[in-house]
Design goal:
Ig_sub2; alpha+beta; Immunoglobulin-like; 18% helix; Limbic system-associated membrane protein-like; 34 strands; five-stranded mixed β-sheet; 514 residues; six-stranded mixed β-sheet; repeat
Length: 514
């Protein structure tokens, strides 16, 4: 029986060693989450962080962001507390770190540790910036310089950046610079001064001041808050597209709108005239003018006919700060001009991209049409197809490729690896231009690109699915970490006890025999 006792003691020690090791790894700190959409803990709020450990006999403690052990005195602002919970029939020790009202200095890395293992967690506390003494709207007369001030108070100390229409405002540092930036600290907080020199109509608009708070130690602990200041520049009317004569195209007997739109603050009042001769102005009555106060425009509707083609119309915009005029001319619309040149820019298996140019564009173009046919036996040898042959060709509208100035168009839905004759013409309300001289161009062979793309897509989606699964597994693991370790531990423990008992009995049996 003595042997049996030894064996049992040995088995117990062995079990403790193995099982204890397993347990020491099952330390688990709840991930930190913040209220609503916040990525930080607002100052003054309460927060608890739980650290769970399986073994009730192990010492568990929290180390604060300076590496010191957090005391259990719950009269402190920050303290640690031990709780025991039942989880899947086993006792789980929970060490809860509590911040009764968080301060910015609490930000940092906290460590939950036992003798054998530890886990770190980052806490981010921010006192979000408040904008103080910062106006929402300011009106200033043109010509002078003006300084916008933006003052933000918060912790960590905010820094301020300015932008307008999505672009950062920079101080070039030289005297010709449009903007000057200056920073000031005072009792209230951090103040940034933006000086805009010699204000003009263009400077009118929204200036956004953004206060950025960053924790110097934690890279993920930051916050940006913005404040919009509307700067109203009182200015005389200006035509933002310039004062050049504006040409308005019209068919005979067509009614056209001459739209006068000046940027001004306060808003302009408008008068419309036409020149009887070089010196005499005829003024239209206000009844003939459509005022749109919302958009700040005044429209004069004219029926185009022989009497007013090439006549000059004048719009005068006036406000308290001055006046400005713009001239309009009605031009008789004609058929568009024939393209002078067509060049192939790029080809694929279904598409030809063409660069179309003109010597001069006199009239508006509403679209471009192409006629095309396969280069075949009958027209192969000759240089260009005869007019009669074009009748068998297909017709199609070209698609503009870019929105820019360039006239790049695409002819689509073609057969692969085919040579085509192509000619183009332009159209507008009046009609079509003559056809351009034809060019020949070939589509390419459809390659395996499509196949590769498809395969890549499949691989990608597979990887994604795997990742998703992994994510899900990780989540599950996190939630059930303590209980799964629990199960694993029990399993290995029982296995070892069983195995060693069997071994023990064999030993005892052998001893007895001897
Ligand atoms: C500031 O103005 C911009 C542009 O108009 C707008 O998108 C943004 O939401 C505004 N921000 C605030 C804080 O009002
Ligand atoms: C325009 O109208 C006038 C008078 O009504 C008419 O004589 C003339 O033929 C019309 N012109 C066109 C191009 O329709
Ligand atoms: C328009 O402004 C000019 C000065 O820029 C002034 O001389 C003129 O009298 C003004 N005209 C009207 C009609 O207000
Ligand atoms: C298109 O043609 C014009 C005039 O020939 C030329 O200036 C331009 O660079 C061409 N664009 C392209 C993309 O080939």
């Amino acid at each position: 029986m003595k042997w049996l006792f030894y064996v049992i003691v040995f088995v117990y020690l062995f079990y403790r060693a193995v099982y204890g090791l397993k347990e020491s790894n099952s330390l688990y700190v709840e991930p930190i989450t913040y209220e609503e959409d916040l990525k930080y803990l607002p100052v003054g709020t309460r927060k608890t962080i739980a650290c769970k450990v399986l073994n009730r006999n192990q010492k568990v403690e929290w180390l604060n962001n300076h590496g010191n052990v957090v005391k259990h005195e719950n009269t402190n602002r920050v303290f640690s507390q031990t709780k025991h919970l039942m989880n899947s029939g086993r006792i789980v020790t929970e060490q809860v770190l509590t911040f009764t009202h968080a301060v910015v200095e609490d930000s940092g890395v906290y460590t939950c540790r036992t003798d054998k293992t530890s886990q770190e967690v980052e806490l981010c506390v921010i006192d979000a910036s408040d904008f103080v003494n910062t106006p929402k709207e300011i009106a200033v007369n043109q010509g002078r310089s003006y300084t916008l001030s933006c003052e933000a108070r918060g912790q960590p100390e905010p820094r301020i950046v300015w932008n307008r229409n999505g672009e950062d405002i920079k101080d070039d540092g030289d005297d010709s610079s449009k903007y000057r930036l200056m920073e000031k600290y005072n009792r209230q907080g951090f103040e940034s001064l933006l000086t805009i020199t010699s204000l003009e109509a263009d400077d009118h608009g929204i200036y956004t001041c953004t206060a950025i708070q960053e924790n110097s130690k934690l890279s993920d602990c930051s916050l940006s808050k913005s404040w919009n200041i509307t700067l109203i520049v009182n200015h005389a009317p200006v035509f933002l597209d310039g004062n050049d004569i504006e040409l308005v195209y019209a068919k005979e007997n067509q009614s056209v709108d001459l739209v006068c739109s000046a940027s001004a603050f306060p808003k302009s009042s408008y008068r419309w005239f036409h020149y009887e001769d070089d010196h005499t102005l005829f003024e239209y009555s206000q009844k003939q003018i459509i005022d749109s106060p919302d958009t700040g425009e005044a429209t004069l509707s004219i029926v185009a006919d022989k009497s007013n083609y090439d006549r000059r119309f004048l719009c005068r915009a006036t406000n308290e700060l001055g006046n400005n005029s713009k001239t309009f001319t009605i031009v008789q619309m004609e058929k568009p001009d024939k393209p002078s040149e067509v060049n192939l820019v790029q080809s694929s298996d279904t598409e030809l991209v063409l660069n179309i140019s003109w010597f001069d564009i006199h009239f508006p173009i509403d679209g471009i049409e192409a006629q095309y046919m396969v280069v075949s036996g009958t027209n192969l040898k000759r240089k260009t197809p005869r007019e009669a042959e074009w009748k068998r060709g297909k017709q199609s509208e070209l698609v503009k490729v870019d929105d820019g100035e360039e006239n790049i168009y695409s002819l689509q839905d073609l057969e692969e690896e085919t040579e085509y004759w192509i000619r183009v013409r332009t159209k507008n309300d009046i009609g079509y231009s003559p056809w351009s001289s034809p060019i020949s161009a070939s589509t390419t062979k459809s390659d395996t690109t499509l196949l590769i793309v498809t395969m890549e897509t499949v691989t990608e989606s597979e990887t994604e699915t795997d990742e998703e699964k992994l994510d899900e597994e990780t989540k599950d693991n996190n939630e059930g970490e303590v209980s799964s370790h629990n199960f694993e531990g029990t399993f290995y423990g029982l296995f070892f006890i069983g195995g060693i008992f069997v071994l023990g009995f064999i030993c005892v049996f052998v001893m007895r025999m001897v």
